[in-house]
């Protein structure tokens, strides 16, 4: 398993990166608790011009991380409950980010169950960004953390996506963004039970 290099994140094509993240491995190691899973659903957010992006309102205390150099985590609180994990990409001043919406567990399922309060490891464990946040132990205090350290990183374990397995759709829950809500910026592995939402 090879940790993704910083060059992977510094490219300016956030849509391409969001698609390439499918099949990659997410690893968190907080306080000796290791959780690992394969990314099966992502959403791209393309900077200040994208009305669905937090960056569309400019640099704020919350979004300042998005305006930094790629290869860091952007974690925000949704509905006062869910810790949403995003990956910052591109170069400083170009606030691209990718929301991780679905992950298939690989290691540390006992830890994920404890964090989520679930009784059994079914597909709801890490289906949807809120569950991903809980299962992997994300918190807004980790916003800005490097994805190149040992505590948190993404890796390539050689997994190959089957031909024709990648689905594409509009993003979920961004109707407020007008025409930008229709951008085909959501990517997922077809038929994977850890993919959230309804396919349009």
UniProtKB/TrEMBL annotation:
Record key words, sorted: DNA damage, DNA repair, Hydrolase
InterPro entries: Formyl_transferase-like_C_sf (IPR011034), MPG (IPR003180), MPG_sf (IPR036995)
Broad class of enzyme this protein falls into: hydrolase
Source domain of life: Bacteria
CDD domains with a match to the protein in the record: AAG
Enzyme Commission code: 3.2.2.-
Family, similarity comment: Belongs to the DNA glycosylase MPG family.
Cross-referenced NCBIfam families: 3mg
Protein name: Putative 3-methyladenine DNA glycosylase
Organism name: Flavisolibacter tropicus
């Amino acid at each position: 398993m090879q940790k993704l290099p910083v060059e992977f994140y510094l490219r300016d094509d956030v849509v391409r990166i969001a698609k390439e993240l499918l099949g990659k491995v997410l690893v968190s190691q907080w306080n000796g608790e290791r959780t690992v899973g394969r990314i099966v659903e992502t959403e791209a957010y393309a900077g200040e011009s994208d009305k669905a992006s937090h960056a569309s309102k400019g640099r704020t205390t919350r979004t300042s991380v998005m305006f930094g150099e790629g290869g860091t985590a952007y974690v925000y609180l949704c509905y006062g409950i869910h810790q949403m994990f995003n990956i910052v990409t591109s170069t400083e001043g170009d606030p691209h980010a990718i929301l991780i919406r679905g992950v298939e567990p690989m290691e540390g399922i006992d830890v994920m169950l404890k964090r989520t309060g679930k009784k059994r490891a079914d597909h709801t464990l890490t289906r949807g960004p809120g569950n991903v946040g809980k299962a992997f132990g994300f918190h807004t205090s980790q916003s800005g953390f490097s994805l190149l350290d040992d505590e948190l990183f993404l890796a390539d374990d050689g997994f190959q996506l089957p031909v024709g397995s990648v689905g594409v759709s509009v993003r979920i829950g961004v109707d407020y963004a007008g025409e930008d809500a229709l951008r085909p910026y959501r990517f997922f592995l077809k038929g994977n039970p850890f993919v959230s939402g309804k396919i349009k």
